[in-house]
Amino acid sequence: MAASKTLPLFDVQTIRAQFPALAQRVHGKPLVYLDNAATTQKPQSVIDAVRRYYEHDNANIHRGVHTLSERATAMYERAREDVRVFVNARSTSEIIFTRNATESINLVARAWGDANVHAGDEILITAMEHHSNIVPWQQLCGRTGAVLKVAPIDDRGALMIDAFERLLGPKTKMVAITAMSNALGTVVPVAELTAKAHAAGAMVLIDGSQSAYHVATDVQAIGCEFFVFSGHKVYGPTGIGVLYGREAVLDAMPPFLGGGDMISSVTFEKTTWNALPYKFEAGTPHIAGPIGVAAAIAFIRGIGFDAIHAHESALLDYGTAALVAVPGLKLVGTAPQKASVLSFVMDGIHPHDIGTIVDREGVAIRTGHHCAQPVMDRFGIPATARASLAMYNTQDDIDALVRALARVQEVMG
Asked: How many C-beta atoms surround the C-beta of residue 347 within 10 A?
């Protein structure tokens, strides 16, 4: 393990210094944070942006004529433009702020699904989906009599494209697929699959929760009708999500929630809806959330996805080699195209025990089914331990994990 610690032009130590949470000690040991697929740490610029809003600009938006409200509204809408650029949407009318990616998917399943899906129609997902891209479609099928179809994955965790194509047909109304598996790290060819879905006459929703902080997103190049992600995965605050929807599709959809700000006019006899994107943003939103996401986007842009991807790819290679050398350890998820996730099991040791012991060594990983129980069922295991990488991780972090796993074997052996 003597390879270069960082890539040229990528100063990981300078990046790490901008994340205050990484400087702490846990159980007397320096924190090694490898739980990024669950949530990333926040740079000081994001923390400062959220604090600045609450200290100086805190007011409700869109409905006030006083200075604070106008400032808050301007910041909120400027953040919408920043997100539009981040995903390369055509218009800010296509950017809806929600609580998280889960709510974004539920919005589509309700507002689009209830209006367009009927008995006998089919929804196609994959076997590697997060629960948030399974349950809303199951519920839609339960309400309408539609059928949920599941494209299988192989023993490496790669999507079986031929099987996916065979499941597409004239009854397929929606294809809802992850861009990257949170449990396996598998990267899915979403543009290719979107084209196949469109050829069959289906709409497409992409869950970009895991991909959005690793690689650049271009919804126009993908061609999907919907794309979702959560702010807390892209180094932003929790409690804020994004739904991109193609404008013509959103325009034809009924509102998801009713209340303030999503209306044009209200009488006791009739209510008319506000224009996009406000038709889908009922009530007072999490105003600080988009402001924090905008700061996170600026932080990412300052480094660049090319540099981030190169660093994380090299780190994944290093981590893969280091973990497969651990006696009794087996990686779960070895697809040829994968990113930033190292899920594994160890002979005779439950993942929860692994997580508990490595935490005592200052190493934070995730253990369990990762809200992807069908993935665990596919591999015949109850859970995995998962180390997941972000731009601020280093080879030293991987080395610390390997030392902590030796401690696991010592304790449990």
From this structure: 10
